[in-house]
Amino acid sequence: MKQLFLCSYFAGVKDLFRQYVSEKQLGKQILFIPTAANVEEYRGYIDEALQTFEDLGFQVEVLDISACDRETAQAKIFQSKLLYVSGGNTFYLLQELKKKQLLSLIKEQITDGMIYVGESAGAIITAKDIDYNKIMDDKAVAEELHDTAGLDEVDFYVLPHVGEEPFVESAQATLDTYSDQLNLLPLNNHQAVLVEGEEVKVLEE
User: Fold this and answer.
1) d(CA 148, CA 132)
2) Of 102, 119, 170, 204, which is the most buried if we count CB atoms within 10 A?
3) pTM above the 0.85 mark?
């Protein structure tokens, strides 16, 4: 059964994740992909997410998919029962996943029971297509991205950081532009959406 934990800001939903972990009786090993933050000036949320996992007793293995070869990335993801994909630039993240041919593998692993945890960009790429996020994120940093098809694991489109600085204006502009066309799911920094099979629940800390 498909199991996804998606959020806007991971450190802001620490207690929700703690509860999720205890209910699922998850192991304490997590594969942590920080790649989306490589092209961002501010990367504090990476350290905060790492600290959050540490506080919850997890052993974290960090895998920057832009800095390793395809075989290594595929092997690490194949072995993982719990995968976390960080925030950052959504288009750059998708570019790097596609360059290493990881999208289909992640989909297969989700089908096989791997739990997928996505923060901001990591949550956005679970949609069918990520083009709607071009108001919030700069597409120009992903010069090698030729199409914006995402993981297509959910039938909604996460819109993170609604009402949260410094994304207040870009989140609102995305809502205004796409709410009639797409099934947007707005999240503030203290909400998470749980996907279990066909069931979708939004929780708030």
Assistant:
1) 9
2) 119
3) yes
